[in-house]
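Re: your question about GntR family transcriptional regulator

S., sorry for the slow reply, the queue was backed up all week. Below is exactly what I fed in.
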Amino acid sequence: MVNSTFKTRDASSPLASSPIPLYLQIADILRGRINRREWLAGALIPTLEALASEFKVARVTARQAVQLLASEGLLASRRGYGTVVTKADDAPNIVVMKTSLESLAAMYETTSAKILTFDESHAMPSVAADAGKLGSNYVHMRRLHFTKGKPYAVISLYLLQEVFQRSPEEFRLRAVIPLLLRMKRAVRIERAHQTMSIGAADPETARLLEISVGTPVAHVTRVFLDRQDRILYYAEVLYRGDWVKWEIELQT
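Result:
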């Protein structure tokens, strides 16, 4: 009977439609309140009953969210007093993503990367039919990108082999997009397109980005085409959802 009650309350939560576990969603909301200094260090947070009522979940679900933040060092239980904020997350949790190639390149110039896998032998991206025309061969690189020493993105990219061969050592060691823009006389990017969706971190992504499994991540697909609609660069990128700020210019 108790379990049935929990299920009914969780099912009524406005968060229940997401595939991400409820306690992870709640933990992410509470973490945001701490990071935005809505809850200051030393402040007493609402009781589990109050949190359960706010999010329309079972008390055990609220407890799981609070316990997760306690394990991260953001909250601590004080016997006879309640749960208090210990500190804001020290992570550099803003990576500004803009919508021009130049600003995107500038952002990557300020970050570092580590190669996870590298394949120079006949790699081919799996792309949608309308994404562009595939070239004859691509170099595949999977990289973990860092800002201020903390991982914020996992990038799986494919670079046309003939483009890679123009500067192979630099492409191995440095961010690809800034290099492509510096090669604009030899490598002409005629069109660039990206799409974004929100998903949940799988176990491997969570390990690499140092987040919990199921935490929201931004999934970006990025394509650069030449004048013949041939794909020069194709990437699948997973960003920490809590560290990325997108700035989009609205047309008037």
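Residues 1-8 have pLDDT under 50 and may be disordered. The domain at 95-246 is CATH 3.40.1410.10 (Chorismate lyase).

Happy to talk it through on Thursday.
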